[in-house]
Amino acid sequence: MPVIMGTAGHIDHGKTTLIKVLTGIDCDRLEEEKRRGITIELGFAFLDLPGGRRLGIVDVPGHERFVKNMVAGASGVDFVLLVIAADEGVMPQTREHLEICSLLGIETGVVALTKVDMVEPDWLDLVTEDVHTFLAGTFLEAAPIMPLSSHTGQGMEELRAELARMVDIYRPKRRTDLFRLPIDRIFTMKGHGTVVTGTMVSGNIGLTEDVVIYPRGLTTKVRGLQSHGETVGLAPAGRRTAVNVLGLDVPDIERGEVLARPGTLYPHAVWDVELKCLSSSPRALRHRTEIHLHHGSRETLARLYLLDRDKLVPGESAYCQIRFADPMVGVYGDRCVIRSFSPLRTVAGGKLINPLGRKVKRFSTEVERLASLAHGQGEELIATQLDLAGPAGWRFGELRILTNLESKQLEAALQNLSGKQLVFQFDREERTYVSAAVVGELVGRAQAYLAAYHQKEPLKLGVPRGALAAAWPKGIASKLAHFLVERMLKKAEIVAEQELLRLPGHKVSLATDQAKLRQQLMEVYQRTGLTPPNLKDVLEPLGIAFKEASAVYKVLQDEGRLVKIKEDMFFCAAALKALQEKIVAFFRSNEEMGPVEFKDISGLSRKFAIPLLEYFDKEKLTVRVGDKRRLRKK
To answer: Which among 284, 283, 288, 271 has a CA at the least distance from the CA of 332?
Structure first.
C-alpha cells in the first residue's frame, strides 16, 4: 500500500532544501516562493526506494501565517519528517507543527537535525539533548534523530536508508473503499483543462467515472488521472493524485472541497466530536466560542458547543458539537484541528464521531451516549449509531460514513445484526435500518396507546390502522409504521379485526340489557335481509330510543355484522354479501347493468335499489356510466 511522508517544522529550518537534495524535486514552484525564499503553498515530491517502492512526500510551509496550508498537507500523511535546524533548535512552529501532527493522529516519524555544518560539535550535542527533552512524552519520543546537512550531503544516505526502513516496516492504516480526495490545489493544464490535486485518503478512482465535488454537489467526470507525475488508469488510496475534471473551470472549484462518487457523502451542518484541548493552550475553550476548524484541506469558521460543561480547560477532553454556517462533509474517525479565532494559534483537536449530528440538549442523558460512539467498533458502533438515530434510522450509504467500514464489511455486519434481531431493515428500496431498541420503544408506545383507547372506548372494537400513527413521533416514515404494524401482528402483540386494530385481550363488553338488545337487533335485520325497516320501525317495538341503542349499533358495525347505507338505513352484512355475489355473477356474461336488470337480480323496489346501487359504487364494486353500471374490477 502506498505510503506518504509529510514534513513539519519552523520556517527556514531547511525542509524544502532537504527534500530537493533527497529527490531532485524543488517543491517551491511559485515565483513568490523563490523571490522571498520561503514556502507558501504545499509542495509535492516523491522518492524512489530500493525494491521499486516509491515514497510520496508532502512539503509544508513553516511560517506561522501559513499554518492552514500546513494542516491541509499534513492531513493525508502516514508519518512525519520533523525538521529542526541545529543552529536554532526548537522554535514556535516546531512545537505547533508537532502538536498538529499529534492531533491529526500521526503516530510515528523521523527527526532530521539540519544545518549541522553550521554549528560546533559541542553546540550540536546541546541541541540534540534539547530536542530529546522536547520530544519526551510525544509520539516522536523514540524516533531517531538524524544529524545532516543539505549543503555538504552529511547524513543524507543514512536518512535515505532510514526512510526506506520506515516504508518497509510501516503499515498504513486500513483505508476503506469510500473514494475521497480532499482538494488542495486547482489549476489549468494547457490542452487538458481544469485539474484538481490532493492526497487520496481512501478508495480508488478510474478514468471516465462520474464524480461529485462536495459539499456543493457539482457533478463532473474523470477525464484524466496522474499519480506522482505518471499517467494512470486507476488511482489507489494513499497517493498524491491529480484528476483532470470535465466541464468545470478553476473558479468553479474551491480548495478544501472533496471529490467523491455521487451519493456517497452527506453535507451536514452539525458534527459530534471528541475534542481535546492542548495542554499548551493559553486559555480554556468556552461554550459557543467561535473557532477556525481545519479538516482535510479545508479551513472554515465554526462555533463550538460544549455539552456537559461551560469551559474545556487545557489538557482536558470532552464530547462536544461543532456547528457550521455552511454544511461540511466528513467520515467517522476523521481528525480535525481547532485554532482560536484571535489570536490565531492551535488550541485543540479532535476525532469526528458523528458527521450527521443532531442538536442535543446540554447536560442531557443523550450527551453520555456520545461517549459510546468514540470507542465503538464494527457491529457495536453500528448499533449505537442506530440507537442515536431514533425512528428516522439510517440508510446504508449514511452508515458507511457513520462507521467508516468497507461496504462488504458493513453489509456482513448488518446481516449478522439483523439475524440476531438487533437491527431491522424497514425500507428495502432505500436500505434503511432502525435499532431493536427503537422498535421496542415504538411497539410499547403503540400498545400503551391501544390500552388507553380500549379503556376510554370499551364498546369499540379497535382503531383504524391509520389512527395508530398518533402513538408515534410526528413525521415517522410510512414504511416504518407499516413495518411495525405487520411485525406486531406477526408476533400477536396486536390483532386485526377487518380494518381495525386491537390488543389481543380486548373484547367488547356489553351490559346484560345491551347484549339482549344486540341479539334482538340482529334478529330483525337477519329476518328482513335486503328490505330492512327504517330505524324508527326497528326501535319502537323494542321501546328504546336511538340514543340508547347507538352504542350497540356501533359495535355491530365494528364487528362487520351490520352495514350503514345511509343515516337511518342499516342492512345485514351477510345479505349484502349475497347480493354482491349475484351482481358479480351477472357481469360474467354482461357488460352493463341497468336499473331493470338490478331489480331482476335483487327483487327490490326503488326505495332500496337506489341506495344500494350508490353503495356498491362507493365500495368500488361498480362504476356508473350514464344510467348504467359496469363492473369496476373484472
So the answer is: 271
Letter string b/e over residues 13-43, b meaning 16 or more CB atoms within 10 A of that residue's CB: bbbbbbbbbbbebebbeeeebeeeebbebbb
- The model's pTM is 0.77
Compute the average pLDDT of residues 247-252. Answer: 94
What are phi and psi for residue 388, nearest 5 degrees?
-70, -25
Report the greatest alpha carbon distance in the chain: 124
Q: What is the CA radius of gyration of the chain?
A: 37
- Residue 284 has a CB neighbour count (10 Å cut-off) of 16
Per-residue pLDDT at 63: 44
62-95 burial, b at 16+ Cβ within 10 Å, e below that, comes to bbeebbbbbbbbbbbbbbbbbbbbbebbbbebbe
Tens-place pLDDT, residues 430-468? 999 999 999 999 999 999 999 999 888 777 788 998 899
The three cell numbers of residue 598 are 338490478
Beta bridge partners of 622: 631
Q: Which residues contact 244 (CB under 8 A, 6 or more apart)?
A: 189, 192, 193, 194, 195, 222, 223, 224, 225, 226
Same fold: 180-260 with 268-371: yes
pLDDT digits (tens, 9 = 90+) for 16-71: 889 888 988 776 554 443 444 434 456 777 888 887 788 888 777 644 454 566 56
Please state which architecture CATH assigns to domain 574-631.
Answer: Orthogonal Bundle (1.10)
Sign of the torsion formed by the C-alpha atoms of 477, 478, 483 and 484: positive
Separation of alpha carbons 340 and 549, rounded Å: 76
Domains of the chain: which residue ranges? 3-169, 180-260, 268-371, 372-432, 574-631
C-alpha cell at position 75: 492531513
Name which of 26-40, 98-112, 177-191, 620-634 the model is least confident about.
26-40
180-260: which CATH topology?
Answer: Elongation Factor Tu (Ef-tu); domain 3 (2.40.30)
The DSSP code for 574 is H
169 CB neighbour count, 10 Å cutoff: 8
CATH topology of domain 3-169: Rossmann fold (3.40.50)
Q: What are the pLDDT digits (tens) for 300-330? A: 999 999 999 999 999 999 999 999 999 999 9
- Reply yes or no on domain 268-371 having CATH 3.90.660.10: no
Identity at 436, one-letter amino acid code: A
Distance CA(281)–CA(402), nearest Å, equals 30
Report the distance separating Cα 103 and Cα 100, nearest Å: 5
pLDDT score at 288: 95
CATH of domain 372-432: 1.10.10
Q: Is 109 exposed, middle or buried (0-12, 13-18, 19+ CB in 10 A)?
A: buried
In angstroms, rounded to a whole number, what is the distance separating the alpha carbons of residues 245 and 121?
Answer: 53
